Structure formats: structure tokens, C-alpha cells
Amino acid sequence: MSSKKNKYDHISLAEELVKYGCSLGADETEISIIECDEFNIEVRLGEIENLLESGSRHIGIRVIKDKKTAFATSSDFSKQTLRGLMKNCVKRAELANPDKYNGLPYGLEKPTANSTGLDIFDPSIASMPLNKKIHLAKKTESIALKDKRITNSFGSSFETKTIQNTLVNSSGFAETYDESVCSLGLGLQAGEPDAKVEGYWSCSRRHLKDLEFPEDIANKAVSRTVRLINPRKIETQNVPVIFEPLMTSWLMEFLFSCVSAVAVYQGTTFLSNKLGKRIGNKLISVIDDGLISGKLGTCPFDSEGVPTRKTMVIENGILKNFLCNTYAARRLDLISTGNADGTGVGPNNFYLAPGIMSPDDIIAGTDRGLVLVRTIGHGLNPLTGDISRGAFGLWIEKGEIAYPVSEITITGNLGIILNNIEILGNDLEFNHQVIGPTIKIGELTVAGQ
Amino acid sequence: MHNNSNIKPGLSDPFNLSEETIKKILNLALSKGGDFSEVFLEYKIFTFIKMEDDIIKETAESIDLGMGIRVISGDKTGYGYTNNLSFKDMKKAALTAAQIASGHKKTTPFELEPAASKFNLYQTVYPSHDALLEKKIDIVKRAYTTALDFDSKIIKVKAALTDQIQNIVIANSEGLLISDRRPLVKLTCMAIAEKKGQREAGFYGGGGRVGLEYFDSILTAEDIGKESSQEALHLLDAVLPPAGEMPVILAPGHSGVLIHEAVGHLLEADFIRKKTSVFWNKLGKKIGAGTVNIYDDPTIPFFRGSYNIDDEGTIPEKTCLVHQGVLTDLLQDRLSARMMNKKTNGHGRRQDHTCIPLPRMSNTFIDTGEFSAEEILKSVNRGFYALRFQGGQVEDSGKFTFSVSSGYLIEKGKKTVPIKQATLIGSNIDILNKIEMVGSDLEFGLQTGVCGKDGQGVPINDGCPTLKITAMTVGGIR
After folding, report:
1. ipTM of this predicted structure
2. Which one of 2.70.20.10, 3.40.50.620, 2.70.70.10, 3.30.2290.10 gives the CATH number of domain A4-225?
């Protein structure tokens, strides 16, 4: 579907709408078009459960008139609907209030890279035969189900998406790029009927060739499940806590929401007045980088056409930059970091820089503590940095995993945690857009009985 | 019985498709031998108004048009969708979905029979989607201004109004042809209070399948503003909770989320037939204290979770899930019901035309008991009173977590110190058996909730009376 013809169709449709918007009196107009081909197969207990395939498209409109903004989106591409939406959009802009920071980015540079240079599109996805896709999902699950300790399956799934992004605005920006994502994953259950435990593993990549093998995914899902069988409750106590990479990702997602320039100007983050100040110990460096070849958060430009780049967010504990779209940047007198995402900001590849110690050595060096393997619930407050979540973990005694624990909560504060990270692991893996390695935190409250 | 005047049987306008075309698509979908095919047409208009920094900052309008087509072959589902309602694109989607079966067409011919629901649950006076933008802006301003003016410690407010009108048509190879037109409105307000450099946020909101008259009479825009500021101020004085196991009282209304998460999800029939739910073998068995009665009711007029037909075209029923502590029924959609040899009870829901329907909740609640709220409070010497929830999550094993955004410490039968940011954890069967007292004061939570499952969000509501749990683990500081 992402043929050359389509590409030019989208640019010309967008250009036509931009012109129409300006003819209605808009000062600035921006049109984005996303075309997505999606495939998903779900297999459970050896049988196909769901097979989904689709082509979808969406158009986004932003209009600025007298420094007043209005937005619209549509999946109905009929000329009549789009023209009607544009008319409404200009009218709605008139009813909003002016805000001097509104407006498209000034003098956009041409992106320095395209999807080929950034290696974020896999053309082989489109030609992958159906039976091969089914085979991948079936094989992953069947390997896992050979393990006698596994009692049930949530199913395995193989998913692909190819997306064509087009952006045109009234300042003359007109670019398009292709990207793709594929993922293979599995969820399992084990344990006694009234004390079931669950575990998952899933791998996502830009390219089919970079996906982990079904054997590896199955084995990881099995070991992540069976290690939780027969959990114990523990007494409430303060202990060192080791975050596995997925848990560090979760912590980094929370950090992202606190260094988002939108949260800063809204006053909804505890870091709003900390720019240039120390917020963590010297071990901590956090980076947002939209230009790393072939990664999930990589793209040539953000949703406003600002080229992506590498931004030091925290450097050796010092808060260096907030992540901005154009609006937030103007408001805070900063520059856009290429993180615009719809009407807000979003991460590119946002990661905590790794250390040198292996996760096994980190555990071996811990006398007593908890390995955090999964949290559930909400309980994150960007205003204060407070964290309180239900958790599953593995108890460490004398440098070894002793037994699994459940029905615990962990309580802490992001500001304190950033100063309290003692060791960084060497296991950073670009499996998501927001990631981090294994980390050891000096002390957190683990509530149990 | 309700009056059906504004619900037309069969097709409605926005799609401009004939019954004949829909029938062709349904037949194409069965060309490889599936047992059942279904078309879901959707045309949704959504609008959004946001006020922040004392100005109307942003407005948006969204149009979503599309068709989803499903084929069931044995236990398997094939699904395709498209935003383009040309015959060519719909045919492509139908043939995609058809791939799930592998053989030749074998089903018997059918005729589409236009049908209508017996319910008309959203009779609005001033439909929001038809109202002038100026009128809606005024409502947002009322909430915003009330919140900001409520106290000098309120330093920041955000208010937003969203509304949508979702037109759907469902047709299937059993001959069903039915439509619904569902309004949904939500006004929310967030306020931040500051004292001595410490900041806290409060939240409130309301709406449902209602018209704009709701914000003048049922829950005013001013009340929504006021409540959000009150919560923020309450939290300024709050402290982190003590950690450990203790008696917990759940406030009426807002605590319904606990029933939704800890019980409701695990009674969705797909988790039962797959045997992943801890309740899979408990139908007809006692799973909780005898005072516990739990219902899911999609037929409460004007509620967010309600619908005249579910997203498979089934006319819904109020379902009794737990009667006097005994598990009596499940939430069924067509596929699960068919595989379990049961009848669907109208709980097949989907986020939109891109999604496969799943068994889902609508408005879920614990029914009233015999105790007054005061009696319940008096029975606790030292414990935790959970007032407002931020959300919750449950595993199929029944283990759950709830984030309590605000509450109180209970000392000698009285609510004393305000508490913030607590987490409640436990496992559902354990807690259901520890529901020691059920209040007589059934209330429902905010009409703002969205429930997520497999990446699909659907509007829901939940409720409960005051409840006492003998003991629960509270996460806090040591």
C-alpha cells in the first residue's frame, strides 16, 4: 500500500487542504496524513484465535488564526467532509482565545535523514506470506507449552505495522517517511488453581530480521512465569530494590512525564524549577535521541516537522533539558527538541544510560533485598514524584534469589530514587521507546503484612 | 416500556449503503466457509474544548468513519476493517476476514430483517453534539471559574468538555440488521492547590449519555469545579498512609472501581472459558460473604456504561453476577456464549470499528446492604478509609492493586487525618470473603470512567455502598 503513487497523492491532498485553509482566512495551516497497514495473528493453545488485517488512514488538521488554534481529525477522506471540517476548524479557531505562543515552527530545516537513512522501514514485511506469520506465532507458543510447569496460555501473537507519515504546512514544509514495527510475544500462566501466576515476554523491532527467535521469546516467557510460582508474603520493611529493565522502563516513563515541557509550563511536575540543577547522583544520565539507526523511537522529524535530534535530559545528575514541542519551547523560552507528538510531547528513544555491571553480579552483591519484576496499578504523581504501586518480585537472601513474593506494594519518590540509584546494569536493550538497564536502588519501602 | 419513536429500525443515514450491499459483503465474508459473518458500521463525531491559563486554549473536532467485518469459523475469528466505504475496499476487508476459514462456502442464504431495541436509554433535551460551540464554551468556563475562585490556594485549573455521537449499524449472517445512535458527554476539571511550596491536584467530572441540561440540573458545571478544588485542598493537608495490614472502609460510589477490577473483569466469559480466570470453575459456588450481591446493568438510563444494543446488536440485560455470595452468571458476548453453550446477555462491546468485540462490563455495582455508613465507621478502632481512587488493576489470578488518591485514617470510629497516595493490594476471593459489612447507601462513581482491555477502551461506570473489609494490605511509608 505504501507505493510511490500514494506518497505523492497524500502530499498533493495535504497541499490542497493547506491552500483551502489559507483561502478561508487561516494564517497558518498544517496537515498530517497517516496511512497504516496492520496485521495481527493471535494463537492460543495451538489454534488460531484471531486474525486481523486492515488498512486505515487518518488526516489531522491544525489551523492558526490571529494566534488562536483549532484542531480536527478525520478518517473520512471524502472531499466534502474534509472541506466541511476545515471550515469548522477555522470557525472554531475564531471562537478560541489568542495565545501569543501559538503557531507553526519558524523556518523549519529540512530533516537531515529519511526513513532509509535511519533504517526504520522494513519493506520485507509487506511480502511476508501468511503461513509464515502463523508459523511464527504457533511455534513460539508450542515451545513454551512443552514446559510441564506451564498450566495455561494467554496466547502468543505476531503483529506487524507499516506506516506512511506525511506532513505538509503553510510554511512550505512537505515531507513523508515510511516506518515499520513488528512484534512477537507470549503470555503464560502457571501455579495451583487458586494461586495462579502469570508472565509475559514480547519483542518489538523495526525489522523482521532483528526479532528475537521464537525459542528465546518462549524461554523468557516461561522463566518469567515459573519463577513466580508459590509466592510468599513478606513483612513491611525498607530494603534495597533491584529494578529489572522493564521496571526501569516504567520508571523512565514516569520520569519522561516529569521532564515534559508541557508538564513544566502547566506546573504539574516536581522538576519544573530544577533546570540546570542537580536532581540525581553522578551515575544518572538520561538521553532522548530520535536519530539512533533502526530503533523504535527513531524518526526523521516530529509531528510538527521539527527534525529530531539527540538531547541530554540529565547529564551526570544535572537536569540539562526539558523535552519540548514548539509551543512549550516558546512559552519557556527554550528551543524545540523535536518531541512534538500530536498536541503534546512524546519520547523519541528516551533512555537511562547503562553502566558496566551484569544483572547477575548486581544480585550477587545484594545481601537482602527485592528484585522488582512487575508492578500493577496506577499510583504515580508527577506533581510530587510520589510512587506507590502493587508489585511482584523475587526476594534476595545472601546474594541469591530465595523465593517469589506477591501482595506487596512499593512506595517511594522519583526525586529520592534518582539520588539513590547505586548501580547501573550493562543490559540496556532497545525493546521499547522508553528504556533503561537493570538498576539497584539503595532503599525503598516494601509494604507487606 | 420506553417509547421507541426516535430509534429507527435497520439502516440509518450517514453510511449511504443499501441493504443489498451489506448483504453482499456478509456473503463475501463467508466465501471460504465461515459459520458467521458480521458487519459493524460506525460514523462518530467527537468534539473537544479545553480551557487552561484562563483562556479557551484548544478546540478539536474528529470524524471517524469505518466498517469492521468479522468472520467466525469454529472458535476462530477473522477480522478486517477499512475507513473507505467503497465496495472495493469493503470487499477487500471481507475477503481478509474470510481467510480465517479455509474451504468453500457452505452457509444457507439469509435475508436481513430490520430490528430495533426495546430500550431508549439516552433521551436528551439539548444534545451536546448539536449545540453551538459558544454554549459549550460557556459550560467549560463555569467549571473553570468556580474552581479557580474557590480558594486563593488554587493556582492552576484545567477544564475540558468532550462529546461524541456514535452512529452504528450492525448486520450479520443470521439476518440481524439493527442500529443505535449513542451520545456521550463528559466535563472534567483538574485543580492544583499550593501551600508552602507543596502542590496537590484534585479531579472531578461528570456526564454520561446525557444532554447539556445535565450540567444545569443533575451535576452542575459549578459543582464539578468546586469538587475538584476541594479535593486538591484536602490533599494539601494529607499525609502518606501507614503501611501494613488493617481494616479498610471503602467509601460509597468511588469504591465501585474495586468491584469492577477485582470481580467484574474475572467474570468476563472469555477469561472463564480460557480457564485463566480464578473464577473459571466457581459458577454456582460461594465466592464471597453472604451479604454480597453484584450486578452489571447496561440498561440504566443516561449512564456512560449503558447502551440500547451492545456492539454485536444484542439487546442487553441486567445481569446478576453474584447473589448472596454465590457466583450466578457471567458477562457474555456471542463468541464466548456460543463456545460455552450459553446465550449472550448483551455484554459484547468494542471500542470502535477497528476492534473485535469482547465480553465487557457496563455499569457494575454491589447492591445495598443493611448497615448505615455511621454504624460501619463506628465498628473500626484503627484503620483506613478509602475515599477516592485513581485507578486499579487486576491479574487473572485475582491479585489486584488500587491506587487511592485520597482517604482518611480511622481512629476510634472516626475519620481523622487526611491521607494521600495509598495503595491497596490483595486477592479477590480473599477480599470478597472479608466484606464484613455492606452499607445501605448505594452510590455510583464519577461518570467519567473508561475501562481498558486488550487495548480497547469503553465507557463504563461502577458503584457500591459503604463497605467494610476486615483486613487489607495498605501500601505506604514505614
Report:
1. 0.85
2. 3.30.2290.10
